[in-house]
Amino acid sequence: MASDPREDLVTHLPAMRAFALSLTRNSATADDLVQDAIVKAWSNFDKFEPGTNLRAWLFTILRNTYYSMHRKRRREVEDPDGVLAAHLSEKPHHDGRLALADFKVAFAKLPDEQREALILVGAEGFSYEEAAATCGCAVGTIKSRVNRARVRLAELMHLNDADDIAMTDPVTLAGLSSKRPA
Description:
67% of the residues lie in helices and 0% in strands. The protein has helices at residues 5-8, 13-24, 27-43, 54-75, 83-88, 93-108, 112-123, 128-135, 139-156, 170-176.
């Protein structure tokens, strides 16, 4: 009766480690590779055909595990500090929709003149002079209305500083922005 191939597994470990070391050129990685290969072999012993070459089967598993690991690492980028990942993150789209809903409620509470001035200057991009001509009033009046509207919107939306205005909706952001249009 032939011995259980699981019992012979230990005899192949030194050769597997040497092979893994030749592939990885790093002892810690080689040890991890051998361990992964042994785990795969152990969990798949039902697929091993007794009487065939156990060493070749183990080395095939080891080699395939190495190439799988190598392919995976080529797709990965080392980022131990998370700097790269921070640049790849994206603000959830629903935040903008929620902020826009809050903005619409607050915007509806503004007096008509302030809403009109804010739409012309903030959303439509009119200069203060163009908005004043459109509304038939002085440039200073438009500037005052826009400023009061922005301050009131910030109060209604509980915004304290520019960092709180990080919305995904550019129209909302333009309406709350304190920059004079170009």
